[in-house]
Design goal:
about 350 residues; globular; 2 domains; binds tryptophanyl-5'AMP; Tyrosyl-Transfer RNA Synthetase; single chain; 5 strands
Length: about 350
Amino acid sequence: MINQKQQTSFYLRRLMDMNKKIVMSGIRPTGFLHLGNYFGAVKNYVRLQDEFECYFMVADLHSLTTHPDTKELKINVQRVLSENIACGLDPEKVALYCQSHVHETAELYLYLTMLAYKGELEKTTTFKDKVRLQPENINAGLLTYPVLQTADIILHRASYVPVGKDQEQHLEMARNFANRFNHRYGDVFPEPQAFNFGDELVKVPSLDGAGKMSKSENQFATLYLSDDDELIRKKVMKAKTDSGPTVPNSSKPDYIENIFGLMKLVSSPEVISKFEEDYNNCTIRYGDMKKQLGEDMVKFISPIREKADAIRNNEQYLKEVMEKGAEKARKSARATMELVREVMGLNYF
Ligand code: TYM
């Protein structure tokens, strides 16, 4: 049996080893997971879990900035956990935990708020969006949202953060805050980078051609991992199209590009090239294309939905996953915070 002091020194040594790259990311429990969450984030989590030390969490504290009512929170947290596991995340390999279970997050968040400036926080795109969407609740948590996100990431001294394109600005801010801390107090944190296996971060568009798929807005234009087969087909059939191109090899309008983009996520290369050809020689039938896309989406989503349903019904299992995940995350967090307090000069005895 190793004692806590030995354990901490093990983690400190491990944290000092800059070659060991750590991965961290999170998802807010504000609704059902959708195709954007899958292709922007969870798919990469699964691919990273064998190679890296990974911390993946349900960002329940972040959800309070927009959803202060906590009645549904437990069920939503369980849903996100189940869906992550159903997508292939293995709680034995990674730390899968809930943000509010790791109290060190709040301490680091507090220190970082003193290094974040009002002007830069007010300029954040997501803050400006939220001010527009909820003018009656522009709380300080919304303003400092990127600071809390930075605390989540650097608490584990993570280098890679698998996220979708919408999180690019938050990651840039995380780098700024981490660098500011390092310059002021001492080199503790690596620079976290947004990560995707492809060249670019992913943005899964909504089916109506306006914006991206989203947990709480745009629900009929978003494909959720919990949608039943009929609903998937119905949503895809409603996707915006037009009467088709009249000039061979013409460029595609955004909403048609989006349908091809969605097809590239779930359909076979043969299917995609058939419809590309049909488009280029002006024989494309969008009805047929959407029918095919609907079937391919059903094939992709239904096994995840069924697995997630089964996991969600096993409350005891989910409780164990959360406890174990929190335990792993706390160990890493404690070690970082010892370093943080030390370089900040807060250890008075
Ligand atoms: P959230 O909950 O909005 O989204 C979770 C993940 O899904 C990605 N995503 C998308 N990717 C591609 N296309 C889309 N349409 C799409 N919609 C969502 C997001 O980029 C994200 O990776 N602030 C974060 C949660 C968070 C976090 C963190 C993330 C809290 N702490 C620390 C990383 C590290 C958010 O609101 O994600």
